[in-house]
From TrEMBL:
One of its GO terms (molecular function) is metal ion binding. It is a multi-pass membrane protein. It is found in: Cell inner membrane. This is Alkane-1 monooxygenase. Its EC number is 1.14.15.3. The chain crosses the membrane at residues 37-56, 77-97, 109-127, 218-235. It comes from the Bacteria. It comes from Limimaricola hongkongensis DSM 17492. GO terms for cellular component: plasma membrane.
Length: 380
């Protein structure tokens, strides 16, 4: 595919990824109308994109991976704009809902559950894109988005643990074969922050520093999250603080639901003595569904993201099934299936077994892989 050098052409190519901004007027309508209108945001993220995926089909086209960053200005801009947009939406709802006499308790809860879905399905996805960049401003913006959902250690874990050790026992985010989402979620909740802390401690120790050092990012995480909590308290009092916390919990739940889908049952081959094969496209589930990839800025092209973590989202590649395993549906449908473990196992366990036969016919005993009993990688 040829590069689009003209800014106008780049804007036209980027516009489908700006669909996330539709959530701002939807949030306003939900808050003003109340009643069943409070379900607008989850209906947008889940139901609408289920339908659009059926209508829009698959997108197997691959952009030129050598496209210069100058041609991606409009693609990058939406990830930057989203930071103040999400802040306005989240804290605007905290301020308004705690003062709106026409909203009952269940309506307020529904409103902030919907906000949490958007903070997770859009905000954390954008944060994920930003934290992978070399630009310091973009990384800070990613930190702000993560602080808005009180899940700042995700940055340390994602960069220091997940990308290095995906598909091994050292990565709690890699869901084990036959492990239900609910069990996986609670395992991640306590283990991920602990592993993130240990990874940063190892990094600092190699430089002769301790976790008391100002270079420990957890100081920044704590300050940003405290600032978010203080702002919610100032705008909405204790009730506003509780609603802010609710949207954060839902956002984290949404994120970990996606993480569960992305790597379920996929393991890297153990080569002996704590050594594992390099990360390849086969170690992440891939999805080519056009509509949901626009909302999720190509996150479903996850096979290429792990293979080339520094590649910006508009340039992520898709792969045929003989190189990367394919999900039967996009993330919105797969997320619903993951919430019902028997349905999930029926959809996915056969695919995991087929993946094993295709890529690792030489492995006769998958028991240690399934139970997470293999040695931790060196240095983990």
């Amino acid at each position: 595919m040829s590069t689009l050098p003209a800014p106008r052409a780049s804007l036209l190519a980027a516009l489908p990824y700006w669909v996330s901004l539709l959530t701002l007027p939807l949030a306003a309508i939900a808050a003003l109308m109340g009643g069943w209108w409070v379900l607008l945001l989850p209906a947008f993220a889940w139901l609408l994109f289920d339908i659009l995926d059926l209508v829009g089909g698959l997108d197997r086209s691959n952009p030129d991976p050598d496209t210069p960053e100058s041609a991606l200005f409009w693609h990058r801009l939406i990830t930057v704009i989203w930071v103040p947009a999400q802040a306005a939406m989240t804290f605007g709802l905290v301020f308004y809902a705690t003062r709106a006499g026409h909203l009952g308790g269940w309506e307020k809860i529904g409103l902030f559950v919907g906000q949490g879905v958007i903070s997770g399905a859009v905000g954390i996805v954008y944060a994920h894109e930003l934290l992978h960049q070399r630009d310091r401003v973009e990384r800070w913006l990613g930190d702000i988005l993560l602080a808005m959902v009180l899940w700042s250690p995700f940055r340390s874990h994602h960069l220091r643990v997940h990308h290095l050790h995906v598909g091994t026992p050292a990565d709690v985010v890699t869901a084990r074969y036959n492990e239900g989402f609910h069990r996986h979620f609670f395992r991640v909740l306590w283990q991920m922050p602990r592993d993130a802390w240990r990874a940063e401690a190892r990094m600092l120790a190699r430089r002769g520093l301790t976790m008391r050092s100002r270079q420990n990012p957890f100081w920044r995480y704590a300050a940003l999250q405290a600032g978010m909590l203080a702002l919610a308290l100032a705008l909405g009092g204790v009730e506003g603080l509780m609603f802010f916390a609710l949207q954060a919990v839902v956002a984290i739940w949404q994120l970990e639901l996606v993480n569960y889908i992305e790597h379920y049952g996929l393991t890297r081959k153990h080569l002996g003595d704590g050594r594992y094969e390099p990360v390849r496209p086969r170690h992440s589930w891939n999805a080519e569904h056009r509509a949901s990839n626009r909302l999720l800025i190509n996150l479903q092209r996850h096979s290429d993201h792990h293979y080339k973590p520094d590649r910006r989202y508009p340039l992520l590649q898709t792969y045929p099934e003989d190189e990367a395993p394919q999900l039967p549906q996009g993330y919105p449908v797969m997320g619903v299936a993951a919430l019902i473990p028997p349905v999930w196992r029926r959809m996915m366990n056969g695919r995991v077994r087929a993946w094993r036969r295709r890529f690792y016919p030489e492995i006769a005993d998958w028991g240690p892989y399934k139970r997470g009993e293999l040695p931790r990688p060196r240095g983990a």
